[in-house]
Amino acid sequence: MTSPRITVALSVYNNAEYLADALDSILAQTFGDFELVIVDDGSTDHSPAIIDRYAAIDPRIRVIRQANQGLVASLNHIIAVARGPYIARMDGDDVALPERFARQVAFLDANPDHGVIGTQIQTIDAQGRRRSEPPVDHPLSADVIAAALPTASPLCHPSVMMRRDVLEAAGGYRPAYRHCEDYDLWLRLAERTRIANLPERLHLYRYSPSQVSHRHVLAQRYGVAVARLARVARAEGRPDPSDGWTALPPIETLDTIFGRPGVASDVRAEVVRGLLYAPEVMAGEGLTWIAAHLDDVRRTGSESIPGLWRAVARLASHHHRLGAIRLAALLTRHRIRR
């Protein structure tokens, strides 16, 4: 059998509400030389039945069943069995516009020095309606993306197409960076290849309350901070301590792992900074991180991150009154000025 140009990598876990729209959008691509490899990652809703229905009518669909292992394991499984030289990501709750694959293949064919190409996106809500917020604009050129990567993720993960050989050479997705596996991957791929985004909005990215970015903000922020430390280690010619990790270590061990004092307190401040606009997290486990950050400030004499008192008001406005009271008490006890 002739190998397809593209392997579409789709991991599904309880996406029944949106899955048909996602599958329809893939099968409606104007570039049809692809295989769609779907990992049903232990879904407990109607996703398996939807997958089976589509697989029965389109021979390009290959289905893998497994107990729930998470996105990283699912994507690495797809990479291992992929037949296409290009791998296109897709999420089970998004929509790919018809020209997406055609435009991405054309770009990679014309730019052999580029290994990753994303697209601009249009955000939609849980009902599929375009959101009223200003559109998200990702940087286009490889040089701008390379400059932005140390501080931000300039790609929408489910919109990208990648060269499989470059992805395999980088080691695929790393399990320690669960919930920020894409950012860690971009940092490592940027050391091997050029990365760009198309200017067209070719992907509809859905925002919903069940998203990983909403449910795992704390783990995501911690992973991003550690991924940046690992990038610096590689850039300085030192071994990447996170190679082979299956989980991130306790924050208290980071000074020893990365070989200098103050790493843990710096990471803690970075994580807390990222929680200021996540009131649900701040009202819960985030308070423990804020308290530890304030202990760091008292011990070292450093400045606390700005905006903590404004976060009190934000908690109250989001109906987390008890969290607001607890945070205000913490700031008062540590004599943090308004």
Automatic annotation (TrEMBL):
The keyword Secreted does not apply. Pfam families: Glycos_transf_2. One of its GO terms (molecular function) is glycosyltransferase activity. The keyword Glycosyltransferase applies. InterPro entries: Glyco_trans_2-like, Glycosyltransf_2, Nucleotide-diphossugar_trans. It comes from the Bacteria. Residues 8-168 form the Glycosyltransferase 2-like domain. Keywords: Glycosyltransferase, Transferase. This is Glycosyltransferase. It comes from Sphingomonas yabuuchiae. The lineage of its organism: Bacteria, Pseudomonadati, Pseudomonadota, Alphaproteobacteria, Sphingomonadales.
